[in-house]
Amino acid sequence: MAEKSEKQLVVGILAHVDSGKTTLSEAMLYRAGSIRKLGRVDNKDAFLDTDTLEKARGITIFSKQALLKTGSTNITLLDTPGHVDFSTETERTLQVLDYAVLVISGTDGVQSHTETLWRLLRRYHIPTFVFINKMDLPGPGKEALLSQLSHRLGEGFVDFGAEQAERDEALALCDERLMEKMAQEIDLILHGRAAGMLSEYEEGDISILRNEIAKMTVMLRQQAEQLGDEKHKLADALADISHQIRTPLTSLNLMLEALKKEDDEEKKRRIIFDMRRQLERIDGLVVSLLKLAKMDAGTIKLQKSQVKLGELVRAALQPVEIMLELKGITTRIDVRGSFIGDKEWSSEALTNILKNCMEHTADGGMITVSGYENAVHTELVIEDSGSGIAADDIQHIFERFYKGKNNKSDSYGIGLALARSIIAGQNGTVKAENVKNKDGKVCGARFIIRFYKGII
Prior knowledge:
Blueprint: E1 7-15, H1 21-31, H2 52-57, E2 64-70, E3 73-79, H3 87-94, E4 99-105, H4 112-123, E5 128-133, H5 142-153, H6 164-190, H7 205-261, H8 265-297, E6 305-308, H9 309-317, H10 321-327, E7 330-335, E8 338-341, H11 343-359, E9 366-373, E10 377-384, H12 415-424, E11 428-436, E12 442-452
Parallel strand pairs: 1-3, 1-4, 4-5, 7-9
Antiparallel strand pairs: 2-3, 6-8, 9-10, 10-12, 11-12
Helix pairs in contact: 6-7, 7-8, 8-12, 9-11, 11-12
């Protein structure tokens, strides 16, 4: 038959000075059979006071350890300094404890250093037994000491020397207090008036329950805040969409009224042409919004195949080739390498960036596209010779519906937002900056796209 496994515990003894801590440690070791005779501090033969200075002054300066066994449990007993000057040594010991025994002198009661030790034990979440020593000497008495513990260290202390019925009632009352306090904390957390007091919790079934409920309420509050933010963002987006569509609709309405009153056929054809342009603008806006909404919702499944930079740039330039030719803008392309992504959607993102560059480049200007691949990422750089990006606009340029100072009046303010969303969906990044000449003057805009080969 296999032997029952033995339990290993590390237990520390802490106390204020002159509480009888070392004498208690000696008694525990003696009763457990770890030492053959009881030592005394005043006799300078205490088992745990081995240093010459400790024996001379009759105080514990350094933490000591001793082994004792009770039943199937092996206990490593750590005796800590009680003097306030050696608190650092005591706190260092706390980091390895499973349990602690806090010794309080029955004649002195709770001291200021006792409160300091109690706070440290709470901070390190160490289950603690409070041992009232020297109860055989004249002092305030048990009831007064229990009242002092509750007043200075907090409620929840139970006298394990009391009768079984009295002890059970005290334990039940502790649970009721814990439940009541937990309910109050949950209410505070749910109403956003507290972030949760998890650092106060200790081991035990009720404490585990408190932790789990507190975590759940924090999560629910965060979700509520997130939903609130999303609600505001949705309201702002609807307001922006309404504004974007209202402008061309107003123009259409005015053109329609003008068309009714116009008799000249040539002017009618011009009005109809302008109306068609406004309808195309609305259609383009709706299509872009639908694409952006699908990207945000994650309903678009981006393909993962090898995309060659040369083929991507040529595909992205096709929709703007005619406008580039009309404005006399030349393009210079120097790209090599590839990346894993969706060629069709990447082409749309790049087209939106090229279109932005074209709109801000004067007639006869130039747009340069360069790209390369290395072991970490594939990079595309698009530069134009335009007016650049206003300093106040750089940090907002990829926000939806944002219109910079140099934007055209009929711009949607959505193309770059869609481009960023597409690139981000392929483990990529995009940033904008200004190109400067040797004199430090802005001479164009630069967009840098990177598709990373690993998770970023």
